[in-house]
Write a structure and sequence with these properties.
Blueprint: E1 20-25, H1 29-38, E2 42-46, H2 58-74, E3 78-84, H3 93-110, E4 114-117, H4 127-148, E5 151-155, H5 175-184, E6 190-194, H6 196-200, H7 206-212, E7 217-222, E8 224-227, H8 229-235, E9 243-246, H9 255-265, E10 270-273, H10 285-296
Parallel strand pairs: 1-2, 1-10, 2-3, 3-4, 4-5, 5-6, 6-7, 7-10
Antiparallel strand pairs: 8-9
């Protein structure tokens, strides 16, 4: 995947292999069974699926990782990424670095190639100040990740609260921020969990951004965005409620072009539906996953 070969959760090299199609969820027997029954061959799973104490010693991490790999293998599922969406306190780098070390080493023990996370940030600080705060943590985290053969993939979630005002708790949501981040910490371990849905409602060129930062794409979220033009016309873009996330195929993302771009950049890693579609929530969650799978499966070799 864009440089180094991927090692999947079964220990097999996946470089040059086809992409894996999965979704983001907790790790459990029920979720593995659901994923396998639908036809998915991958999952992105939350690190919080395991108690924090399971990640705090090498022996315990190794034992838990072995159990997880064995269970995933039973269902033919590859864990393509661990999700650790903890923003932490941007002003407390020591505390954040220690927490990341445990999760990175757990990732390595499971032979999962990517750790998906957030940049976090201080919502009252500007972009340059946030990049400096981020560097205070992730210069060290990058070295830990490099030592363990794990890629760190930052999801480009804007993290805005109610608007106005527009204050983000996750500053790394735009191509401008990515450029500053990767210039500040030039490490092959640091990259993106690319989610086109967040760029759609920002009116950004998600296909151009994907191609421009292709070598830094280490994991992919598959989520769509629907724009309610009547709400924009009535309330304006600061009014809120004029866009919502959807299962792929129910929004504005051009998925054939998106996957064409993935193939063009040579991406062969994990892809995961991030199911935040209110239409298919609750008892209809599995229906949403099935619809997403059926729509996307023909695009993946």
């Amino acid at each position: 995947m864009n440089g180094n070969k991927v090692i999947d959760s079964t220990g097999n090299h996946a470089g040059g292999a086809s992409m894996k199609l999965g979704y983001l969820t907790t790790f459990s027997d029920d979720e593995l069974k659901l994923a396998s029954g639908i036809g998915f061959d991958g999952l992105e799973v939350h690190a919080k699926s395991w108690p924090a104490e399971d990640l705090q010693s090498a022996d315990r991490r190794s034992a838990v990782a072995s159990q997880a790999v064995e269970l995933a293998g039973k269902y033919g599922i590859t864990i393509t990424a661990l999700a650790y969406y903890e923003r932490g306190n941007a002003h407390e780098p020591r505390e954040r670095i220690a927490a990341y070390r445990n999760v990175i080493e757990f990732c390595a023990a499971m032979k999962v190639p990517a750790l998906a996370t957030l940049t976090g940030g201080d919502p009252d600080a500007g972009l340059d100040d946030n990049v400096k705060l981020w560097t205070d943590t992730f210069a060290d985290v990058a070295r830990i990740a490099e030592d363990n053969g794990v890629k760190i993939a930052f999801e480009n979630w804007p993290g805005f609260g109610p608007v106005p005002p527009c204050k983000s708790v996750n500053f790394g949501f735009s191509p401008t921020a990515w450029e500053k981040m990767f210039n500040a910490v030039d490490s092959p371990a640091l990259g993106l969990e690319f989610d086109p849905s967040h760029l759609v409602w920002q009116q950004a060129d998600y296909l151009g951004a994907l191609k421009r930062f292709g070598s830094k794409v280490y994991h992919v979220h598959l989520k769509d965005t629907e724009i309610m033009e009547d709400a924009v016309a009535r309330h304006g873009s600061f009014g809120g409620g004029w866009w919502r996330y959807r299962i792929p195929g129910f929004g504005l993302v051009d998925w054939p072009s998106f996957f064409s771009a993935l193939y063009e950049i040579g991406y062969d890693g994990g892809t995961a539906i991030e199911h935040e579609d209110a239409v298919f929530s609750g008892d209809r969650r599995a229906d949403g996953l099935k619809l997403g799978y059926n729509y996307l499966r023909p695009m993946i070799l």
